Every structure is written in C-alpha cells, then in structure tokens.
Amino acid sequence: MQKYEIFINPKWIKKLENDIWMDDHVPAVLKIGDNQYSIKLAYRGNVIRKKKKKSYHIIFQKPFTVNGAHEIHLNAEYNDISLSRNKLSLDFFDRIGVISPQSQHVLLNINGFCKGIYLELESFDQYLLQKRKLPDGPIIYATNYYANFSLLNPENELKTSLIEGYTLKYGDKSSLTELEYMIAMINSLNNEEFEKEIPKVLDVEQYFTWLSGVICTQNFDGFIHNYALYRNGKTNLYEITPWDYDGTWGRDLHGQKLEHDYIPITGYNTLTGRLLYFSKFKKMYVETLLEILEKQFTIETQEPIIEKLFQKLTPYISLDPYINIDNEKLKKEKIYMLDFINKRNSYLKQNFGTLI
C-alpha cells in the first residue's frame, strides 16, 4: 500500500480544528515516495467532519497537476468497518460502463503520526476528462438532496430555483441555464412531448446503466445526491456518474445494516419516474439491469474482487488508530456482503414484473 505523508505547520492544523466547517484551504506539503508536492489542504465531506478521523481535499499547487490530476480526495471511510464499500462501488460502476472516479487505498501520515487507511479518489473534473480522452463538456455536481430533478424539494416545498442543489464544477454559467432547461422539460412536458424530447438532451441508455448500478449497490442517497452530471461535448447529451458510495452493499452511510429490499427496483427521483412510464424505456432498463444481474452483480463475479481487496487491506488494518476490526470481523463482513449480493440479486429479479 502506498504511503502518503503530509507535513503542515501546527498553526494551520489548529485553524482547521477550530472550525471544522471551514472550506478555506491551508498550505502543506505532500510526500509520496521520493516526490514532494506543494499542496493546499482542507477538510471535506459533511457527516465525517464531526468524526475523529477526518476526510481531506487536496489541491496541487506546485506542480499544478500530479499524474494528470489537479485535485484529489482522501476519504476516511470512518463509518465503513470494511473500508471498502466506496471503492467496490465505484469499481463496479466502471465495470458496467459508467464513468467513475478511480480510487486506491493509501496509508496516511500527518507530521509523523499515522492517521490510518484512506481512500484516494479522483476528482471528477476537466482533468479527468483530459486524462481519459473524453470529449470536453460542463460538469455539475449534485451537492445536496435538492438535486432530485423535481420542482419540489424533498420536504415537498416548491424550490426557489430549478437548479437548487447543484454546483457548477466546470463550465460557464450557461451550463447551469441548460441544466435548468432540462429540469423544466422533465417537469412540464406532456407525455408525448417528453418521450420525443428527452433523448435529445439525455443519454437515456447511459442513465439506465447508472440507475442499474445504484439499484444493485442500494445507495439510498444516490438518486437525489452523490452524483455528477457531465454534458458530453461530442453527443451534447447529459451523462451521470457516481460519487461517495460508502453507504452500499447492505449498509447505510452510518454503517448500519440495510435490508436487501429497502430500495425498490424503480429507485427514487422524478426523472426515473417519468422515463419508466414508457414501455420502450422500461424495456431498455429491464434489459440493462438484467444483463448486469446475470454477469456483474453476482457472487461468482464479486467474491474474488472483494477477497482480493480485503487481502490487500488486512496487513494494514492494525495500523489505523481509528478503527476496531480484526481479521475475523473482516471475514464476517465479507460473508455479510456476499449474502447481500445474493439476496439483492434475487429480490430484483423477482420484481421485474412490477415494471411491466
């Protein structure tokens, strides 16, 4: 496992600790192997900021990019006793054909003190597009639960803005205007117009592949949060990509068990609801999901992937001062994950009839 060492003036650590909600970055140095980089550092996330083990956002200063990235995220994965659900989920999306941030586990030291195992994540931005040779296009983050493709917020109150819940990551202001247009279209067009117009702005097949990934991994927040929208500059269609998937594979974001049938096969959001009204879109979704259930979301496919990751983590778990897990608990967690896959797979196959 790669070792990351951060060196930071104690006064900047104190500044971060005095205001855990501060998003301002402070100067530091990151050492990876024999290489040293000037960086800016800040806490990231929401719930995790209150925990003993924090997550970090890093922006490279000198050099400006490292391995093609200008920003990276170091996730504490504090509520996941396996430290693996986020990576397993993002890798799963990648395998089924959805653009997904790459990730790797690293051992983090700050000023000589071991802070434990972290998950390094790519930032979904223009540098990721360049690195993967994808067409340029705007990227918009769904930054809170208001990003539900609806006129109403989750409290069933009228939104103050159609793009409430979204933050522009890359692109100009017109990108938000274009998104506003799509959300208005989703909520105002009659059925005949919607069926005709939505494929002109949304990559529907890609959306259903993403939806299948959310449904399989059972990310409760994934339908109205924990995603980014990317408008492909070549097709001019919106695509959707996952983010923050630690509440998956049978547990919620707090690490508590989540029954395999907690989320229905249709998921939750206004866009999905409108799409699944039409027979041709239902057929597309069923075919996409069924293929994934047959080939990817199976014990046969996932068990060696989980086992390989757990074997990689095992030698370093005792070094993490914030987690209390041994090899036996890790084995039990693997059994729990595989049982979830088996039950979730069966449940979804049994509920295809609700789509017809």
Features:
seven-stranded mixed β-barrel; globular; 356 residues; 2 domains; 21% strand; alpha+beta; four-stranded antiparallel β-sheet
Care to give the gist of this entry?
About 35% of the residues lie in helices and about 20% in strands. With about 350 residues, the protein is an alpha+beta fold.
Side-by-side strand order of the widest sheet: 1-2-3-4-5-7-6
Shape: globular
**Low-pLDDT regions:** none
Straight-line N-to-C gap: 48 Å
Helix content: 25-40%
User: What radius of gyration results from the CA coordinates?
Assistant: 21 Å
Instruction: Tally the beta strands.
Output: 11
Order of helices and strands: EHEEEEHEEHEEHHHEEHHHH
Average pLDDT, to the nearest integer? 95
Overall domain count? 2
Structural class: alpha+beta
Determine the number of helices (DSSP H or I, runs of at least 4 residues). 10
The fraction of residues in strands falls at 15-25%
How would you characterize the largest beta sheet?
Answer: 7 strands, mixed, barrel
